Amino acid sequence: MKKRNDYRPPRTLVKRITRISALSFILVIMTFLGLYVGLYIDKITHMAPNFTFLGLILGIAIGFKGFIEEVLVERRKES
Fold first, then answer.
1. Which of 3, 15, 26, 50 is the most buried (most CB within 10 A)?
2. 23-34: b or e for each residue (b if 16 or more CB lie within 10 Å)?
3. Would you state the pLDDT for residue 50?
4. Is 8 helix (H, G, I), strand (E, B) or coil?
5. Is the CB of residue 4 less than 8 Å from the CB of residue 30?
6. How many CA atoms lie within 13 A of 73 on its CB side?
């Protein structure tokens, strides 16, 4: 016998939310990785904000590129 409050969302919804969470996490990780690499190169070359900004921008760009590629793959699967 089912309980009244035993509601479970459809599996497809759970899969989509999980996938979106993973992609968002990857986007954040790539941004911080680019920032860290930029800071590290700045420390070595003593060119304070140059490589930090470059690393941050590259990290964001790489993260968005991966995010968009995954969305396009997901759309192809749905079609």
1. 26
2. beeebeebbeeb
3. 92
4. coil
5. no
6. 8
Coil, strand or helix: which one is 73? helix
Cα(33)–Cα(21) distance, integer angstroms: 18
Structure tokens at 15: 């899969």
**What is the distance, to the nearest Å, from the Cα of residue 39 to the centroid of all Cα atoms in its chain?**
20
**Secondary structure of residue 21 in the 3-state scheme:** helix
pLDDT for 79 equals 72
Banded pLDDT at 4 (limits 50, 70, 90)? low
In terms of phi and psi (left: phi > 0; alpha: psi -120 to 50; beta: otherwise), the region of 31 is alpha
What is the model's pLDDT at position 73? 84
Which pTM value belongs to this model?
A: 0.73
Which 3 state secondary structure label does DSSP give 20?
helix
